[in-house]
Automatic annotation (TrEMBL):
Protein family per UniProt: Belongs to the glycosyl hydrolase 72 family.
Keyword vocabulary terms for this entry: Glycoprotein, GPI-anchor, Lipoprotein, Membrane, Signal, Transferase
Protein name as annotated: 1,3-beta-glucanosyltransferase
Pfam families reported in the protein's UniProt record: Glyco_hydro_72 (PF03198)
PANTHER family: 1,3-BETA-GLUCANOSYLTRANSFERASE GAS1, 1,3-BETA-GLUCANOSYLTRANSFERASE GAS5
């Protein structure tokens, strides 16, 4: 039998390992008014969408350490500060890639859904269930400790036409649940928002809807996928001037979660407008679609095995970004933020009849206090017909934190976001306690968990 000193020594070693994801050279990004800030500096997203293999070969690029480190060198050539990843395995280890990204000055914007664990826009109620939320919360658990986790997407293009706008309450409920989970678990404030399709009939309504209602129901930001600027074009010809006008006064950060029309040869002329005073009072940058060449032919590079070769679009984007440095100052942002009014029902384009949201499924409530546990990963059975769906309507304010965490108030609630609870130079004693429990349990056969 090991002595108490030996047990404590092993616990300390385990705790050191557990601290690894919490160490980073990057400050956490927070929301202030309608903008992102890293410390005192306005933060503009200058990134790409990153999912090698695309939807036909679903894999976790953050768990692929070799591929991640290989591709970081190209991210650095482009001068990126962010990548978006659509699918990860919430059972895998991501430490090495996340720390390598942080060392390169790159943040992660992560979709928490996967092909098997997502909402069904055609029939959302059955798919909004306990198994589904468990997977999403387990993903949050995996990535909350990295200070370069910039934000979580609660969904991507769930509403992709006028008819599917009826599913909007479920998108908003998922956003509410994720924000509540983060607060209840005592994590630092990590922005949560939605990546919308650019549907002209209800684009503005969706943005207003995600920012209306009680503070606990509102998003931390709003993003949309925009392919309306097709080179050769201009700020006015593309209609981007009208979008800026329509979103002027909006109280949350807005950025483009996908952009880069490939109808013609891409020169990425839109970059000059996106990071200029044409747009910086309303927009916080964007993510180019996409890093790797897939069947849709939007790629910046071609990946063959372990080899990468750049394509003409890579050089065009590198030239556009290098010629358009990040704006100086605060970009004229709206420092006060504020809620929108909820859009009125309008058939056939906006089919949300009132402001009520579905209640969190009864079986998922326990995660708020006990945690989500181990996620299902990419090999899980799936959740869309798993049962345990929501059976009621939420009362206003039901998404407020039910226990005190360490993260402070939400950015969209007050116009400012609390700083990260675990800064790069700080650490939590919680991993020491957890490691000690694990070691003692394994040595003495105790059933402590």
């Amino acid at each position: 039998m090991k002595t108490t000193a030996a047990v404590l020594s092993l616990a300390a070693l385990s705790a050191g390992s557990a601290l690894k994801p919490r160490q980073s050279s990057l400050p956490s990004v927070e929301v202030k008014g309608n903008a992102f800030f890293a410390g005192n500096d306005r933060f503009y997203v200058r990134g790409v969408d990153y999912q090698p293999g695309g939807s036909s070969d679903v894999a976790d690029p953050i768990a692929d350490t070799d591929g991640c480190k290989r591709d970081i060198e190209y991210f650095k050539q482009l001068g990126l500060n962010a990548i978006r990843v659509y699918t990860i395995d919430n059972t895998a280890d991501h430490d090495e890639c996340m720390n390598a990204l942080a060392d390169a000055g790159i943040y992660l914007i992560l979709d928490v859904n996967t092909p098997k664990y997502s909402l069904n826009r055609a029939d959302p109620n059955p798919s909004y269930n306990t198994d589904y939320l468990q997977s999403l919360f387990a993903t949050v658990d995996k990535f909350q400790g990295y200070s370069n986790t910039l934000a979580f997407f609660s969904g991507n293009e769930v509403i992709n036409d006028p008819a599917s706008s009826a599913a909007a309450p479920y998108v908003k409920a998922v956003t509410r649940d994720l924000r509540q989970y983060i607060r209840n678990r005592g994590y630092r404030t990590i922005p949560v928002g939605y990546s919308a399709a650019d549907v002209a009939e209800n684009r503005l309504e969706m943005a207003e809807y995600m920012n209306c209602g009680t503070d606990d129901e509102r998003s931390d930001f709003f993003a949309f996928n925009d392919y309306s600027w097709c080179d050769p074009s201009s700020f006015t010809q593309s209609g981007w001037d009208q979008k800026v006008q329509n979103f002027t006064g909006y109280g949350l950060p807005i950025f483009l979660s996908e952009y880069g029309c490939n109808t013609h040869t891409r020169q990425f002329e839109e970059v000059a407008s996106l990071y200029s005073t044409d747009m910086t009072s309303v927009y916080s940058g964007g993510l180019v679609y996409e890093y790797s060449q897939e069947p849709s032919k939007y790629g910046l590079v071609e990946i063959s095995g372990s080899d990468v070769s750049t394509l003409p679009d890579f050089d065009a984007l590198m030239s556009a970004l290098s010629g358009t440095p990040p704006p100086q100052g605060d970009g004229g942002y709206n420092s006060t933020g504020g809620a929108s009014g909820c859009p009125a029902y309008s058939e056939p384009n906006w089919l949300v009849k009132d402001d009520s949201l579905p209640a969190i499924p009864e079986g998922a409530k326990k995660f708020m206090t006990s945690g989500a546990g181990t996620g299902p990963g990419l090999a899980g059975a799936g959740s869309q017909n798993a049962g345990g769906a929501s059976t009621g309507t939420a009362s206003a304010g039901s998404g407020q934190a039910t226990q005190t965490g360490s993260s402070g108030s939400s950015g969209s609630s007050s116009g400012t976001s609390a700083a990260g609870a675990l800064r790069p130079t700080e650490f939590s004693f919680a991993p020491f306690a957890c490691a000690a429990v694990v070691v003692v349990s394994s040595l003495f056969g105790a059933t402590l968990l």
